Fold this protein.
Amino acid sequence: MGGPRQKAKKIATLRAEIWKNAPPIDFTAPLDSLEIMEGVMRHFYLRAMTEQRMGDDADWNSVDALMLRTLAAAEKVAKYRHAQLAAMRFSGDLNARPENVNLDELLASIRADWAVLGPLIDMDPTAPQGSRTEGGLTVGRRRIERDQRSGA
């Protein structure tokens, strides 16, 4: 019967065949560390899912180990893919109220910002948005005055 040496020879022969038919490796290709981490995460996750689909024949210890390795890679990827709120800096005080600014000036400022930012998120800043808010802003195209509500 075949012993461990026969099995090792068979594996070595199979690997030699694979390497003989494989395309050449480009050692000068640029590497993106985030892409590599995502590839590692995907590799371990797919291996775990493949093993898990074997049902009763699955090696659940292997699935658990592969999922833990997936989790470790996912934690590293998440640090770069999703910004932490604590790491963001805001300019000014978030609770500050604008002083000496009337509603028209504030609306003009918002529209100017919208004209710059709208195209970045594929929204037309010139199209009417049909806002349904009250208190000096627009309802459709009709203007509602704050004075009507305050009784002044």
Remarks:
- The two ends are 101 Å apart (CA to CA).
- Residues 129 and 135 are 17 Å apart (CA to CA).
- The helical segments are 4-21, 33-52, 60-81, 103-117, 146-150.
- Residues 30-83 form one domain.
